[in-house]
Amino acid sequence: MTETIRQIIELIRSNSSFLITTHEGPDGDAVGSSLALASFLRNLGKNVTVHYQDAVPDLYAFLPGTDSVLQHIPDQHFDVSFVLDVGERKRAGKEFCDFLRVTTTVNLDHHLSCENFADYNLIDSQAAATGIIVYRLAAAYGYHFDRDTALCIYAAVITDTGSFRYSNANREAFTVAGEMIACGVNAWDVAEKLYENQPQKRLELLAKCLSTLEVFKDGKAASVTATSDMFAACGANAELTDGFVNYPRSVRGVEVAIFFRQLEEKKFKVGFRSKGKVNVAAFSAALGGGGHHNAAGCTVDGSLEEVKAAVYKIVETSL
Ligand SMILES: [Mn+2]
């Protein structure tokens, strides 16, 4: 057990009220890890409040504890506040950052870039998901994993590893997932809820997006586009485009995939994905955005033609 884990366990033992939060636009790891921690603490008899800046995405509503997530931090005292999976302090949101001064804070994360902004920082980029960090903490505590906690950890691991396909799917990810299965998690049940449960309009929108596929730079780059017209025609929202960028990336020979999503008449969100060789954070940085080696994004002003031209130029000259 590391010194930090020992200190956090002592904090858990000696306090009774806890706040848990995570990053904006929560993904499977954000929801899974925060609710796993909530479930662990509640089963110890602690008073737990979970806060997200945004609503729980429909896709993760099946995870136990989502019904008690609050979108504003209640005006009350908390002994300790946890922030999970944020990657950087500002992604914890303004409400929480105002709060950092008044409680003891714990930062649990697996992003390489995460700063030590809290009083206690348990950060390990070797962990496949923040759910793995929560697992380590609960396991070190000697916690007997119940099915609900196990389900949240499993969901965090399966989503952040792309169902054990990404390079972060290490031995620990498989071992922890296996242990969660032993605690009663049903793999098909989770897979069905996550991947066989799409709203019809998501596929209708996907069909329109795929028809915009462009492959360029001698087959090394590819893009798809979602315009406001497409969203309107399908009655779909931006949340449903999650994962669309994986389709251009899946084309044989493609190293860099781009997803253009219209925000306003002359404003586009540009998402980049790499298969591993190319650092797409450099592309988004050149356009004023940020991100990681394999996943990055930015917002670019202009018509679709102008935005595409600007993005393609950067990709063409740097690839
Ligand atoms: Mn994560």
Structure description:
- With 319 residues, this protein is of the alpha/beta class.
- It has 2 domains: 193 residues, inorganic pyrophosphatase (n-terminal core) (Alpha-Beta Complex); 119 residues, Roll (Diaminopimelate Epimerase, Chain A, domain 1).
- 39% of the residues lie in helices and 20% in strands.
- The protein is built from 12 helices and 12 strands.
- α2 links the parallel β1 and β2.
- α2 runs parallel beside α4 and α4 runs antiparallel to α5.
- The model has no long low-confidence stretch (mean pLDDT 95).
Order of helices and strands: HEHEEEHEEHHHHHEEHHEEHEEH
Spans of at least 5 consecutive residues with low confidence: none
Strand order of the largest sheet: 3-2-1-4-5-6
Named CATH topology of the largest domain: inorganic pyrophosphatase (n-terminal core)
Q: What do the pLDDT scores average to?
A: 95
Summarize the structure.
This protein is of the alpha/beta class and 319 residues long. 39% of the residues lie in helices and 20% in strands. Strand 1 (17-22), helix 2 and strand 2 (47-51) form a beta-alpha-beta unit.
What key phrases describe this protein's structure?
319 residues, alpha/beta, inorganic pyrophosphatase (n-terminal core), Diaminopimelate Epimerase, Chain A, domain 1, six-stranded parallel β-sheet, six-stranded mixed β-sheet, 39% helix, 20% strand, binds manganese (II) ion
